[in-house]
Amino acid sequence: MQHPTTRSLLAAALFALAGIAPAFAAGDEVTMYKDPNCGCCGKWAEHMRANGFSVKEIATPKMGEVKRAAGVPQALGSCHTAKVGGYVVEGHVPAADVRRMLTEKPAIAGLSAPGMPQGSPGMEGPFPADRYDVVSVTADGKTRVFASH
């Protein structure tokens, strides 16, 4: 019999407390929570779809609750929060980094591209692209650079 990980139990409990159904879909199914008025979130979803992911978009005005329930530290916050393969993906993380995480299956809670880096997936535009890091975060809040862009 397999025992659930502490991370998955904690995340499931937090989602239950917040009244939000967990979206621990297997493989390439992404559930993304976004503010109903945000356009860049939809562009990130398009980027993920273009890279082979299936994305379900859930518009909610309660993004603060979603982030707290997912365990996203405030310093790592961005405009949308997603779940894929039991991990949290916060913000404009490139699909290649998500794919790498799903392939390597590191012992982390998820990835974040803190803030809204110009030039990241969904944030492309006429301005020069920012250099930015995607960080991994553990269930106890420790961070580490996962990829640099």
Let me know the largest β-sheet. 7 strands, mixed
Global structural class: alpha/beta
Specify the CATH architecture: 3-Layer(aba) Sandwich
**Terminal Cα span:** 41 Å
Radius of gyration, CA atoms, in whole angstroms = 14 Å
Q: Describe the global form.
A: globular
Provide the spatial order of strands within the biggest beta sheet. Answer: 2-1-3-4-5-6-7
Q: How many distinct helices?
A: 4
What is the multimeric organization of the chains shown? single chain
Salient structural properties:
149 residues; alpha/beta; Glutaredoxin; seven-stranded mixed β-sheet; 4 helices; 7 strands; 25% strand; globular; disordered N terminus
Fold and architecture overview:
The protein is α/β, with parallel strands linked by helices and 149 residues long. It has one domain: Glutaredoxin, CATH 3.40.30. Helices cover 28% and strands 25% of the residues. It has helices at residues 6-18, 40-50, 63-70, 95-104; strands at 29-34, 54-59, 80-84, 87-91, 110-113, 133-137, 143-148. Strands 2-1-3-4-5-6-7 form a 7-stranded mixed β-sheet, sandwiched between helices. Strand 1 (29-34), helix 2 and strand 2 (54-59) form a beta-alpha-beta unit. Helix 1 packs antiparallel against helix 3. The longest helix is centred in the first third of the chain and has 13 residues, at 6-18. It is globular, with a radius of gyration of 14 Å. Residues 1-26 have low confidence and may be disordered.
